[in-house]
Specification:
- The complex is a heterodimer of chains A (252) and B (129).
- Chain A is mostly helical and 252 residues long.
- Chain A folds into 2 domains: 78 residues, no CATH class; 155 residues, no CATH class.
- Helices cover 78% and strands 0% of the residues of chain A.
- In chain A, helix 6 crosses helix 7, helix 7 runs antiparallel to helix 8 and helix 8 runs antiparallel to helix 9.
- The longest helix of chain A has 32 residues.
- Chain B folds into 2 domains: 80 residues, no CATH class; 28 residues.
- Classes of the chains: A mainly alpha (252), B mainly alpha (129).
- Chains A and B meet through helix 2, helix 3, helix 4, helix 5 and helix 6 of A and helix 1, helix 2, helix 4, helix 5 and helix 6 of B.
Chain lengths: 252, 129
């Protein structure tokens, strides 16, 4: 037992890779078998992560979810700000500026409108729920943009970790709802051609949500929606901890 | 060389973060102002520029693609290290914020699509910034 413990502790980042890998494998299997691809495996995996973090926090009384369990300490490094920012920036690789031109004016407008609108809605809900601290309002608003813009913004402007967690949860709700809701509302919002698919991707922005939602609607539309959605998180990370934060600070 | 791509990615992030911190100091806020977004812009420009070809093509590019593919696993780990126990009381807030954002965004799809179909040809060259 001691032997296992010492190996796990000494190789904690490697243990994290293995544990996350198994979690994702189980999640994708469940997405495929239980939801027939309607909910993307990544959303299930993130939800499992949040559930595990809850039990980790309750069990240890710590503030870092599963990472406070000694044997899983590597999760803290793997999911920490440094690795997260590194991986997010890497997703910008391969983005062709020419693609954005193809998306046209409506595509560009949809990206900015999507980020700002989701942010405003999220921030308004935070205020309705009684938050008055600009950093908290901004972070929750950013979480309504995507589950990645929330923590990136929250950590940049120094929000509390409970607020950052809420922002991840809000982004996850958004992502899952886009996956499930898109085929339902597709007819009503005219989502049946490449142009509207690009606008849709730019407005929603959650890449996994957009890809899964469009796939369930009409697989031919996926690349168009994904094209604009790719830019969305980047724009969110740029605007969240800057312009949007300053606006909230000025108004609250 | 794989490390060339990884190094380009690292340098982009470091410069983005430095600029973000500097902006924070200049603007008098205790925050990293848009550092990650600025870093993404650096990488987009580098990967679209001919002069960075040795750092973005072939094996070097694979080094960046690896980290790009690690994005979701890292997000899963990020979710697993959140302070969910403390945030559990706010579950309703997260639910309402997420749902409201989606509903409003859905409603905007036809509005902006219409806007695009009228002047699609005249779309000016615009870059993300």
């Amino acid at each position: 037992m001691e032997l296992i413990e010492s190996v796990f502790l000494r190789n904690n980042l490697i243990v994290a890779f293995a544990v996350v890998g198994i979690t994702i494998w189980v999640s994708y299997l469940a997405a495929d078998k239980l939801t027939h691809g309607r909910i993307h495996g990544s959303a299930i995996a993130i939800a499992l992560g949040l559930v595990a973090a809850y039990f980790g926090g309750v069990a240890t009384g710590g503030t870092r979810g599963v990472a406070d369990i000694a044997l899983l300490g590597g999760i803290g490094l793997m999911g920490g700000g440094m690795m997260r920012d590194f991986a997010i920036v890497a997703t910008a690789f391969g983005v062709q500026l020419g693609e954005l031109k193809k998306a046209g004016l409506a595509g560009v407008i949809s990206i900015f409108a999507g980020v700002v609108v989701s942010f405003v809605v999220g921030a308004a809900v935070a205020i309705l729920f009684g938050y008055t601290d600009p950093a908290a309002i901004t972070t929750i608003g950013a979480g309504a943009v995507t589950y990645i813009v929330g923590p990136v913004t929250g950590e940049a402007i120094g929000a509390s970790d409970a607020v950052i967690t809420l922002s991840v949860a809000a982004g996850l709700v958004k992502s899952i709802l886009v996956m499930i809701g898109t085929p339902v509302v597709a007819g009503a919002i005219g989502l049946n051609n490449p142009q509207s698919a690009m606008v849709f991707g730019g407005l929603m922005g959650t890449t996994s949500g957009v890809a899964a939602g469009l796939a369930a609607t009409d697989p031919k539309l996926v690349p168009y929606g994904a094209m604009t959605a790719t830019f969305y998180t980047g724009v969110g990370c740029l605007l969240g901890p800057s312009v949007l934060y300053f606006l909230v600070s000025a108004l609250v | 060389m794989i490390i060339y791509g990884v190094a380009l990615l690292s340098v982009s992030l470091i410069f983005g973060m430095l600029i973000g911190e500097a902006l924070g100091v200049m603007l008098g806020v205790d925050a990293n102002v848009g550092g990650v977004g600025i870093a993404m812009l650096f990488l987009v420009f580098a990967s679209n520029s001919a002069s960075f070809r040795t750092l973005t093509e072939g094996a070097a590019g694979e080094g960046i693609k690896f980290w790009s593919a690690m994005y979701i696993p890292i997000v899963v780990a990020m979710a697993a290290r959140q302070n969910v126990a403390a945030a559990a009381d706010g579950g309703m807030l997260a639910l309402v914020a997420g749902i409201a954002a989606v509903l409003v965004s859905f409603a905007l799809v036809p509005v902006i699509s219409r806007l695009g179909s009228s002047d699609n040809e005249a779309a000016p060259e615009k870059e993300v910034r």
